[in-house]
Amino acid sequence: MPEIITSYPAVLGAVLQFYRKKQTLSQGDIAREAGVNTSTWSRIENGETAMTVEQLAAAAEVMCITPSELLRDVETKILFLKERGVITKKYRTEVDRITKENSSLAISLAGAALAALFISFPFEKFGSSIAHAFKLKNKK
Questions:
Q1: Were 94 and a residue from 48, 89, 111, 114 both cysteine, which residue would form a disulfide, CB within 3.0 to 4.6 Å?
Q2: How does pLDDT run across 8-63, given as a tens digit for each residue?
Q3: Domain span including residue 79
Q4: Nearest to 5 by CA among 122, 128, 127, 137
């Protein structure tokens, strides 16, 4: 049975994307405030690159939330995932290495798929290999 893994940057990115959309802001709106270009902000939301504390503070401010609230939400989501058998690694590079070495045994969860997971339940709505892997993992 494949392991489902994600990373802290991926979870943070999904949470940032959720709050950005909740405030009906574009990636460009947040990128400008955070001092990065839109493609960099997209990579942040997809968990592909890290952000600085200054960027986190600027993004939080424009989304009308505190940095500590954002980070608490990240921790809540990580606990939520853990309860469902998802392993959260500290570094994106760990996830990349594991999925590359064990492509048939590990599914990486990031970006839009991770964001959708936090928004859409139950898992039956997904109809994907990720949903199938969750069902198998939770039957233990």
A1: 89
A2: 999 999 999 989 999 999 999 999 999 999 999 999 998 889 899 999 999 999 99
A3: 3-138
A4: 137
